[in-house]
Every structure is written in C-alpha cells, then in structure tokens.
Amino acid sequence: MATLRVFTDRKKSCYNIDSAKGSKVLVRAYFFYGNYDGKSSPPSFDLHFDGNRWATVETLSDQLVFYEVIYVTKTDNISVCVAQTAPNMSPFISAIEVRDLDSKMYSDLDLYRALMLRRRVAYGTKAIIRSTDDLYDRIWVPAVNAVGSRTSTSIQLATNLPTTEVPIYINMYFSEVAVLDSTEIRSFELRIDGKSSSKPFIPVYAKAGEMVLSNETASSRTNFTLATTSDSTLPPLINALEVFTVSDELTDGTNSDDVDGLVALQREFDVLGDWGGDPCLPAPYSWYWINCTSGSTPRVTALHLGSFGLSGLLPDFSSMTSLEIMNLSSNGFSGPIPSTISKNKKLKLVVTDNPDLCTSGKSCKTASGVDTSDYGGSSSSGKKKSKLPVILGTSIPVFVLFWVIAGVCALLLHKRKSEAIAAGNAAVQAGGGNKPYGNPRPAQMQMAANNNNMAQNMVHDFMINVQVQDQQEPVDQNNQQNNNEEEDS
C-alpha cells in the first residue's frame, strides 16, 4: 500500500486481466490515499468491472479501503476500471487481486449477477484473519464474541447494508465450540424483523455448518437476529458472517463484432492502445472517440479519429456493421479506401486532409499525385508497390527487338562485304578480272545463307516471345504475395 497509480488525463482508465470464460472469480481492489499529493483531500470516484458499475469509492486520509466482487466471467478477460466523477478528483488505485473460486462456492449465486461484499467478519478474534490455508484468500475482519449469555438472549447481526432496500445474499457459518452432554441442545433460527426466516439450526462440534439467505431484499433498517428455538437449552452462537448485495443483471458488454473491430484498430495504431475496459459501458463512460447506442448490448455507431496523427493503410471495418459516421480527417492515411467502407451507402465518411488517401476507385491519383492503385493488404506497415516491373515488362522487349534487328542487319552487311571481297580476290586470282566481284564459292555461299537463316530465326523467335508476353496478363505482385500468404496459412 506504499505505492499507487493516479489517472489524471482520462475519464475512465482500466486494467485488463486474463481469465477463463465461465470462471467464478473474486476480484478485489485496494485504495490507500495516504495524502500522496500533499493536498489532504481524499478523492471520490467510480469503480467498474467488465462494463458494470461496481461501487463509488470513498477514500480516507489515513485508512485503507477495499472493495470486493464475486461473479462468473462472461469472457476470457476481466477489466477493472476507475472513472472520474467530479472535477479535481483524480482516480487512483493501489492494488488489484483476482482469485479463482471453486464453482460450488456461493452456489446460490445467480450466474447472471454479482455479489458485492458489504461485510465479512470472524467473531471472537482480535486481528484480521487472512489464512494461508484459505485457497481463496478471503479477508475476515475481527468482531466481538457472538455467543448469547442465556437462552433468552438473541444475537443482533450488523450487516452494513445501504439505507435503501437492495437484493441481498448472506452467508452465516456455525460450529459448536463445546462438547455437549445428552441433556444439552443448542438450537436457533434466523429472524428478520422479528419473524422466523429459517428452519432450526443445530451446530455440530468441530465441524463447519452454513446457513444461506438469498432472494431477499433488505436495508440498514432491517433487523437480523439469531434467536433460540423453544427446545434449546443453550443460547445461539455464530462464528463468521458474510453480507453481500446482489447486482443488477450483468451486461454482456458491447457487441462482440464491434469490439473485434476496435481491437483490430488498436493493434494497428499504437496511439489507440491505451483505452481499455468495455468501449461503451457503463454509460456515460464510453471511449470518447466513439459513439454507442444505448441498451445492455450497445453497438458502435461512430468513430471520431480526426487529428489523431494516424498513418498507413486503412483497416477493414466490415465487422462494425452499425457504423454511421467515420471521421478520419487530418491524419496521414494512404492507399485505397477498403471497399467495405467505400461501398457502404449508410456510412458518412470524412477523409479530408489525408493527401495520400485514394478515394476515387480501384486506380486513382492521390492529392500528392501518387498512383495508389497497387496498394495491397490492410496493414499500416504495407508499402506502395512499384509499377516499374510492369512498365519494364512491356518496354524492354521493344527496345531489345530494335537493337537485335539492327545488329542482325549490321552482321549480314559485314558478312556480305567480306564475302564479296573474298570472291573478288578469288576471281582475280582465277582470271575473272572482268567481273568486279565475281561469284562466291559454294562454301562461302552456304555460310552466308546459314548466317542469314540464323538471324531470321532469332528475330522470328523473339517476335513470338513478345507476342506471348503481350497476350499474358501482367502479374499483380500484391495478389501474388497475398496468395502465397494464404497458402502458407
């Protein structure tokens, strides 16, 4: 309790704790002000769990206060939140504890409601009992000895209930502390406002017995007593007592599809990751950058993300089917708008001041003149895919074809000149000087023909390759990458 964390910049601040869905848990939150800020002004604020109201925390200058709730989890996550209720009163928290309970404990508990601890006492002790033998780590506060002095004496049970009537759940624990002879009997009953409300109870020596009171409403004005039955020779006793109020029906929380969409958004952009707890509940403590419908399972209807400094590609919000407004202005988004957004006719989309965001279809220019048609994926880490390979794929064959043809022509010209000179020299030597060039020899003629055929074949093959390439669709590197990723997964 020597340390705490204070929250000064947000209406609601939360801790998220992993749990198993359907677990019965005890959650405890501690608050020790200790005048940490030197203002001698212990604050008051609200406490929530899993989107449900828990309590109004009233801290004290020099005393520890704690609050405890027992319930069955609806998801695999427990959230504990503090929420500011008044200006200049910053919520804080000193510690959080979570304990898994046996499913048979508090078995009369409605699975759709929670037990809020009001009092847990052990009678006849002088110190707090927090036994290492108790797997559930319950804290028992000492109370005066609770054994009547004579049979006519009843035991008054202090409950610490609120002034208004609320549903209650009370556990009473009994164990006979003496070995009784055959003539002795200890028998008593619970009375509420003087009326019998239980069957006679006879505690057993050295064994624990339990009496549970549920499905009742009561307040601080309600009178709970243990009184002897007519056949009892000994006064009543009680060893321990737990008093709870019963919550309203627990919420299922914000629609799970909307929660999934918001979680994906938080994973994409770190600046949004600090928001925790239920996005919409309890009202009016929703995240300030969303709007929600009312009801036990609210839907998210608006995202107000203007001027958040977000950048990269827009995620897919297809799971958030109730969105009506999406304000993404003054950020650094780039690439195309997902079709699930652009084709949503009921969605009002605001994307001003995002110069690199493509808004006019599959292939378009951004405000900065960059073609974004080949953006791929939905991650902000995605990068623009260059169209250079496609351009080169069409321009290089024409360029090479030109130089190949030119080279072949030069080669043929050179060969013909060489052959003509050689033939002329041969003719001179053979007496054929009346013919300036003469006739080439058969072997030289064949070589020239072979060279000419080889060049023609090269050009022919090259033209066929170019035609084949022109007939093929250009490969989309983004689609190829996505297909590979799908195959890998």
UniProtKB/TrEMBL annotation:
The keyword Disulfide bond does not apply. Residues 469-489 are annotated as: Disordered. It is a single-pass membrane protein. Residues 469-483 have a biased composition (Low complexity). It is found in: Membrane. InterPro entries: LRR_dom_sf (IPR032675), Malectin-like_Carb-bd_dom (IPR024788). It comes from Hibiscus syriacus. Coiled coil: none annotated. It comes from the Eukaryota. This is Malectin-like domain-containing protein. One of its GO terms (cellular component) is membrane.
